[in-house]
Amino acid sequence: MNRYRQSIIFFGGVIPFIILGVLLGSVLYGRSKLHATKEVKEAAFEKYQAAAGAVSYVEEELQIEGRAEQMAYWEDQLKG
Predict the structure, then answer these.
(1) DSSP for 11-69?
(2) Secondary element (H or E) of residue 80
(3) Would you place residue 9 in the very low, low, confident or very high pLDDT band (cuts 50, 70, 90)?
């Protein structure tokens, strides 16, 4: 194989495949990292939604006439 053909094979075939392999590996790594971050954020959002639902339930209960005063009374009794 002469030098001309060898350099064409090297620069036209080998190096592009190496570059494509590195790019593919980095894309897969980044994708897996993004997927893990997404799962963590979705879990935190679900916890937030559950807490917001509980808060809205408590707020509804406290808006019933006399409930806020009862809660304040019992909190004072428990503290004192």
Answers:
(1) IIIIHHHHHHHHHHHHHHHHHHHHHHHHHHHHHHHHHHHHHHHHHHHHHHHHHSTTHHH
(2) none
(3) confident
**Structure tokens, 30:** 């980044």
For the chain, what are the domain ranges?
Answer: 3-79
Mean pLDDT across 38-62: 92
Rounded Cα–Cα distance for residues 7 and 1 (Å): 10
Instruction: Give the pLDDT score at 44.
Output: 98
Which amino acid is residue 66, in one-letter code? G
Distance of CA 7 to the CA centre of its chain: 47
